[in-house]
Amino acid sequence: MRPDTPADHHAEAERLLRTAEQYPEDQEPLLLQAAAHLELAGDRARATTLYDRLLAGPAENLALIKALQAANLWEYGHEAEARAMIDGIRASTPQDPAPWAIVAETLEAHDEPDAAHATFTKALTLLVDPAEEVPYAAQALLTGRHRVSRALGNEHDAWDALADSLHTGDISLDELHDPNRLWALGSNDPAVLRAEIARLQSELGTYRAALSRPFPVAVLHWQAAELAELLAAYPALESEYPSHATHLIEIESALRELSAAGTKNLGIVTGSIPSYEAFAASESASPSETALLPQYATTLAARGRAVPWPPARNAACWCGVGVAYRGCHGA
Q1: What is the CA radius of gyration of the chain?
Q2: Which CATH class is domain 6-162?
């Protein structure tokens, strides 16, 4: 059962904090989840402490942590500090869609639609090429911009059209983002109320679909040196990994096939031998068992280790060679 009450959220936060102590290599994503539950419980002061703790050390997702901290600080009554962090995030132009979405939604929530619209637009221009597949993580930027644009009364443009094309709900985005919906809730007309109930049901269905897969469907990736060491220790896995080059090609092929089949929220997790051996021991299994590999990938994804696939426009390739995805495995 998902947390519902403040006490449930506090209990879930404590569980995540214990897990972070158990898996220090996964501390960052686990502490971020714990902070989110503390915010939902209304314990914003303690959430701020967790964000500060993450910002004090080496962080993998610095812009994301700062965006979450800014959103929390604004709700916590520290608007000036939050604005300064937001300005810094926008100036740093992160390649991850999540910080942009959090910043824009924070501005939108605090009645700054023009600034929110500009932030959504800047992020999309930087991260999305309309001629290519839109990364799953970036689709929230399109939906958010559409919503703010509708509230501002702007004419539809190419970004709005792209948002419409990706929307799969029974009710169009134009109708869901109709600024007159607030008026509909106070209507005495049964037809108007029935229409609004249908809209709410459609939105609820979308949220449920997202919650049904809280972490990505992830494919396991090994760096070259790690894979060589893995195969030296467990030769039985050579049938699964004929070579590192083949391994990389198979990852990209598997993800493309899943995407073509309609699977959303895809990702890649990078394994390590100590982590894999510890997982095998926890399952009372041998690391030589190939059936253990997808279970290990799922566990890493559940612990927040997945990198979204496909990468955003001009982002580095997931394989780690340091070149842009579109010029590497995305070619």
Answers
A1: 22
A2: mainly alpha
